[in-house]
Amino acid sequence: MCHGFLAFLFSFAFFQAKLQGSEKTFHVVVASSDDGFPPFSIASGKSVTGGIIKDLFDSLLEARGLNFKPIIMAEKRLHRELKAGRIEGALTTEQWVKKPDGYFFTAPIIRVRDVIFAHKGLNLDNFTLASLKGKKLGVVRGYTYHQRVEDLFRGKQVQRIDAKSEQHLIKLISLKRINYALVTERVGWWIAEATQLAPKIHSSKNDFGNFDYKLLYHGKYRDELKGFDQEIKELGKSALQEVLSRYRHTP
Length: 251
Hints:
This is ABC-type amino acid transport substrate-binding protein. 35% of the residues lie in helices and 27% in strands. The chain is α+β, with helices and mostly antiparallel strands. The protein folds into two domains: 17-110 and 211-246, Periplasmic binding protein-like II (D-Maltodextrin-Binding Protein, domain 2), CATH 3.40.190.10; 113-210, Periplasmic binding protein-like II (D-Maltodextrin-Binding Protein, domain 2). Strands 1, 5, 6, 7, 8, 11, 12 and 13 form an eight-stranded mixed β-sheet that branches. It has a three-stranded antiparallel β-sheet with strand order 2-3-4, with helices on one face. β9, α5 and β10 (159-163) form a beta-alpha-beta unit. α6 packs across α7. The radius of gyration is 22 Å and the shape is globular. It starts with a helix and ends in a 5-residue tail after the last helix.
């Protein structure tokens, strides 16, 4: 009986190991900075520990036998590794990355909006691109923005003020060091609330550029991701809204 029980335990352990061994680890680049891109990707100690994308993908990919492993990689290296075919996946947008041979984009996962942030003393009602002309606009160094905004910078109709991060921009706005900053809406409000600066700032209702986050994946995962686009489309009705509710931001 004892031997039979041990044999059962051994068989069960072997079965578990086989199951775990059959699961592929799917490394996906979700941020280019050690600070992450909260609340989409929340980082700690150079590792992604949470956020909207991790919450969504953990369950979606696990059901397909893929162990989702979010990673951080500098943008320059990402482009180089993609070109060499060494990246398994990346959360990005078609505006930022030209799809290399052997890679595929999924359907849009979540739409992201860039809006104007300002100190509460400044009026943002009916604020448009024309409202920016002749003014200074804070942005993140190295970022590329919507074509209409980039045209204003190139034509010197708006003075570009570069900051090292979204965190720095929100702080500068709260201190009235700059009047306006262009920041991804959920990111800006997440930072403002985390740093207790939300009461000092507000944001425009209309956006100044938006993009759709998509999963760019290597062709070797085509079988595992078959039908994934349909699942993503169905997310908007259920799981996506539930996940977004965990990361509320001040409107």
